[in-house]
Amino acid sequence: MADVAFQSQSSNSARRPFWIVCFEMASVIVFAALIILLAVRTTAAVIESKSWWVILPAAVMGYLSADFISGLVHWFGDTFFEEDSPLIGRMLIEPFREHHRDPKAMTRHGFLELNGNNCLAAIPLLSIAWLSAGPGESAVSIFAYSFLIFLSLASFGTNQFHKWAHTDAPSAIIKWLQRRNLILSPAAHSHHHRGDHSTGFCVTSGWMNQLLDPVKFFPRLELGIRALTGKRKQR
Ligand SMILES: [Zn+2]
Ligand SMILES: [Zn+2]
């Protein structure tokens, strides 16, 4: 859901149009507002129904799902289309290809450039959740809302975690989280940047790579899609 444009659109912040910066700021503000509103509403439902037990499974599922979605979007951006493809070329494909050419480029991106697009991508689903006036009192409904909140937060963190995996000297707390593999670690992520970029696509925690890489999930998915569409591999 969230990582539609996984990294920012440009490697040169100084040349970014002002309206894009404003748009990214608006996306972050709306995202934060929706998350806070939904969290308040969901917390009230949890207190009312005493369904505390759903929180931990929802958090774990949300974190794992964000990691998987990060891998799916990353794999798509690395694998299909070209940087000059209409519509998605500059927005989606170029940042991924640029990241292979210059992995450190994203460490020079500011907060809005790094996170604005992910916030924008999460807004439609969060808005639907808000407008549907849930969650109700059922544990399933509370689980669904909790899952969405954790998924959105983890997806919001994805570009940040990926950036820190490429940062030379992150802060002590970030290093602590990376050493315990609670967020993407430089060692785990280095697999992706070695060789032909065919493994280690998941970049939130990288946990899903442990499941997906041994079974060659993404290369096999690519083979299946190419067989169905008749598209040949260009890289
Ligand atoms: Zn890649
Ligand atoms: Zn990377």
Quickly list its features:
235 residues; disordered N terminus; binds zinc ion
Describe the structure in your own words.
66% of the residues lie in helices and 0% in strands. With 235 residues, it is mainly α. It has one domain. The longest helix is centred in the N-terminal third of the chain and has 32 residues. It is globular, with a radius of gyration of 18 Å. The N terminus is likely disordered. The structure holds zinc ion (2 copies). The site of one zinc ion has 7 residues, from helix 2 and helix 3. The site of one zinc ion has 7 residues, from helix 5 and helix 7.
> In sequence order, what are the helices and strands, one letter per element?
HHHHHHHHH
Task: Tell me the span between the first and last alpha carbons.
Answer: 27 Å
Q: What is the C-alpha radius of gyration, as a whole number of Å? A: 18 Å
What is the count of distinct domains? 1
Q: SS-based structural class?
A: mainly alpha
The largest pleated sheet is described as: none
Strand content: under 5%
The bound ligands are: zinc ion
Helical proportion, percent range:
55-70%
The beta-strand count equals: 0
* Shape category: globular
Instruction: Please count the helical segments.
Output: 9
Q: Which ranges are low-confidence, i.e. pLDDT below 50, for 5 or more consecutive residues?
A: 1-13
Q: What is the mean predicted local confidence, pLDDT?
A: 89
